[in-house]
Specification:
The complex is a heterodimer of chains A (282) and B (416). Chain A contains 9 helices and no strands. Chain A starts with a helix and ends in a 10-residue tail after the last helix. Chain A has helices at residues 2-27, 32-61, 69-90, 94-120, 134-168, 174-178, 182-214, 224-240, 250-272. Helix content of chain A is 77%, strand content 0%. Chain A has 282 residues and is mostly helical. Chain A has 2 domains: 1-129; 133-282. Chain B is an alpha/beta fold. Chain B is 52% helix and 13% strand. Chain B has 17 helices and 10 strands. In chain B, helix 9 (211-221) links the parallel strand 6 (205-208) and strand 7. Classes of the chains: A mainly alpha (282), B alpha/beta (416). The interface between A and B is medium-sized, with 21 and 21 residues.
Chain lengths: 282, 416
């Protein structure tokens, strides 16, 4: 079982990268029609393999398999790819080409996260002493789902800005022809931000409650990762409800989501640095 | 193939919008323009086609007279490279291609056929059509219909209006909750409304010079109707403004859109100007949260995305060459009319002379009928030979070659 986990850990970054490349090819270029089906198959198979790896880890560890920063990154990657697949499956026909473009960016980011997780994660699986409690699982699962949703929000925000700039500059090339329309991109940015905000609401509050209840050593609100998480929570909350805020246009929401994505990635990186991070000591 | 045709013009292929809009001939000026052209020495017949994408004049000149320089000087003074001149069979090919929508900005668009028909009616009223242009234009209209019916040209319901709505859809998707203002309730305005409504728009607003037309359009699409005096207010409230009106005296400028309102909008304002001359001041694009496109931008969209090109032109060459051949053969045969009339008269005179000299007044009724039948049959044989001669005057092979030469000169990217 451990060998299978190791093999899958090595395989996953390449598989996601292949899915990202195929999605990029399906978005434009001469081979677009030929790769339209393979890209869906590769992504579905990769996600299935990732899920198998996830379950195997749970069986080996004997608890929820997201128990360190590396497995957290991997879980974020899996959830982001999964959420993208759900969104892409709901679209059909012309819009599927549009989602191929979004997929190229989302899966590129996913493969990067998975690469970091696979490259720097421990080779030997060590179970946590005492396992993971229900609240801990809830905290981790909602935080991971939140991060995945916020990644989608940020990517859609970036694509909105790209398409808007192309349209302002009267460039009617590949992005203009194939990306989802501005309205859809704005909606995706906000709805993903809303999902991320709701998950993060649970994740952050459960995490803080747990830290207080367990009197966790080293926990302070001034911790960079805690501060950043709270800032991200407020930030994406504002984006989620920006439609009802006067003067907060779709373009501004997209700017904010793109900035939020950078902050989110920074937050994930902060978790990785031992010593700075409160989580890395857990 | 002796055809004293000359066509002088400019189009979206050769001239940008700011040039094209200076040379538009409005419907009100068309009769005077035709009369002026017909007054040019050497011009026998004249026809003018003026659309948002082209202004062309087609004339029949006196044989051996080059009327092109005079036409250029009269209509397109100070222009050089923007103006093209086609003559003889190549002018005929060009007219047939225009009617078929093959030379249009959006290949296969159907508006040009209606515009050509209106130009034909105007020229008939101005009495500038004659024995060459009348049948030529009638056949061009027939060719336009045939190409659209028998090839894929007419299948995509392509039009500038459709491209404009496609572009708008890149911003608004399904147009749900979108407020659209259509300036002008003419053919293009109605087409724009139809495409918008087909994609989910509810209650378009029409603003037109003639309120009656705006009301009719609004009734058809369940929208609202206004005159142009309310234009600034309506445009300020709209998410998408599509102008399809003669832009003379109609201007939506930067002042129409309040900067503060624009800043607070969730979606950008989209303005698409299909008018020639333009009705929307280009300066509005300097405002934040505003996207503006005109016909040249739509042409770029069409070119970059190859809207409908390949499928549209497939199979059209055969039809065009066959119709060119038919027209030239009919024309050659028609040129025999005086000869045929003279022959008929001569045959009848000879027959009557022979009957008189052989039998005089006592001719049997059966003999007279026999003589009539014989002369008629002999005349039919002669006419058949003449028809055959007319048919072979311009072989389809030669016309096919001529058509290829035309495309080479045109520099067509995708020869059909």
């Amino acid at each position: 079982m451990r060998t299978a986990i190791q093999a899958l850990t090595v395989l996953l970054p390449s598989a996601y990268l292949l899915a990202a490349i195929l999605h990029g090819m399906a978005f434009g270029g001469d081979r677009a029609p030929q790769v339209d089906r393979p890209r869906r198959i590769v992504l579905s198979v990769t996600l299935l393999l990732h899920l198998v790896c996830f379950v195997l880890r749970a069986l080996v560890l004997g608890h929820f398999p997201v128990s360190d920063v590396w497995s957290t990154l991997s879980a974020v990657a899996m959830c982001a790819a999964g959420l993208f697949l759900v969104v892409a499956r709901r679209s059909s026909g012309e819009r599927s080409v549009a989602y191929a473009g979004t997929g190229g960016v989302v899966l590129g980011l996913v493969s990067l996260l998975q690469l970091i997780a696979s490259a720097f994660g421990p080779t030997q699986l060590v179970a946590r002493a005492g396992g993971m409690g229900t609240y801990q699982v809830l905290h981790v699962a909602t935080s991971v789902l939140a991060a995945a949703a916020l990644i989608l929000s940020g990517v859609h925000g970036i694509l909105y800005l790209l398409l808007y700039r192309q349209m302002r500059a009267r460039r009617f090339g590949l992005l203009f022809a194939h990306l989802p329309d501005l309205d859809v991109l704005a909606r995706m940015t906000r709805s993903s931000a809303l999902s991320g905000f709701l998950f993060l609401t649970v994740g952050v509050n459960v995490g803080i409650a747990m830290a207080h209840a367990e009197k966790s050593e080293g926990f302070r609100y001034a911790q960079p990762e805690v501060l950043l998480s709270i800032v991200l929570w407020i930030h994406f909350g504002v984006i989620a409800f920006s439609r009802h805020i006067r003067g907060f246009s779709a373009r501004r929401a997209s700017f904010a989501a793109a900035g939020g994505l950078v902050a989110l990635l920074l937050s994930l990186m902060l978790i990785l640095f031992p010593g700075i991070s409160f989580h890395s000591r857990l | 193939m002796d055809l004293a045709l000359t066509l002088v013009g400019l189009s979206h292929r050769t001239a940008p919008l700011e040039v094209r809009e200076r040379y538009v001939v409005s419907p009100a000026d068309l009769t005077a323009c035709l009369a002026a052209i017909a007054g040019i020495p050497g011009v026998q017949e004249a026809f003018v086609l003026s659309t948002c994408n082209r202004t062309e004049v087609l004339v029949v000149g006196e044989p051996g007279t080059d009327v092109a320089p005079a036409l250029r000087a009269h209509l397109f003074r100070n222009l050089e490279d923007e103006v093209y001149v086609w003559s003889g069979v190549q002018a005929l090919i060009h007219v047939f291609r225009v009617a078929s929508g093959l030379d249009s900005m959006v290949v296969g668009e159907s508006e040009v056929l209606g515009q050509m028909r209106r130009g034909f009616e105007a020229a008939q009223q101005a009495r500038t059509l004659g024995r060459t242009l009348r049948p030529l234009l009638q056949q061009a209209l027939h060719v336009g219909k045939r190409v659209r019916t028998e090839t894929d040209v007419g299948q995509g319901t392509l039009s500038v209006a459709r491209v404009a709505v496609d572009v708008a859809a890149r911003v608004f998707g399904r147009f749900e909750g979108c407020r659209a203002l259509i300036v002008g309730a003419g053919e293009t305005g109605l087409l724009v409304a139809r495409h918008l409504v087909d994609r989910g728009l509810v209650s378009p607003t029409f603003a037109s010079r003639t309120q009656e037309r705006a009301r009719e359009a609004a009734a058809e699409f369940g929208g609202r109707a206004f005159g142009l005096e309310d234009l600034a207010t309506l445009a300020g409230e709209a998410d998408v403004v599509i102008a399809c009106i003669d832009g003379t005296g109609v201007q939506l400028g930067p002042d129409t859109f309040d900067a503060r309102t624009l800043r607070t909008r969730d979606r950008p304002v989209l303005a698409i100007d299909l008018s020639v001359p333009r009705a929307i001041d280009r300066a509005i694009v300097k405002k934040k949260n505003v996207l503006l496109y005109d016909l040249d931008d739509l042409q770029q969209v069409v070119q970059e995305n190859r809207v409908g090109r390949g499928a549209a032109i497939e199979g059209s060459t055969e039809i065009l060459v066959a119709e060119l051949h038919k027209f030239l053969a009919l024309r050659a045969y028609a040129s025999f009319s005086p000869v045929i009339a003279a022959m008929r008269e001569r045959f009848e005179r000879v027959r009557d002379d022979v009957l008189d000299s052989v039998a005089g007044a006592s001719t049997d009724k059966k003999d007279i009928e026999l003589a009539h039948e014989l002369s008629r049959k002999l005349l039919d044989v002669a006419l058949d030979h003449m028809k055959e001669g007319a048919r072979t005057t311009s072989s389809e092979e030669a016309l096919d070659h001529e058509y290829r030469r035309f495309l080479e000169r045109l520099g067509a990217e995708d020869p059909p």
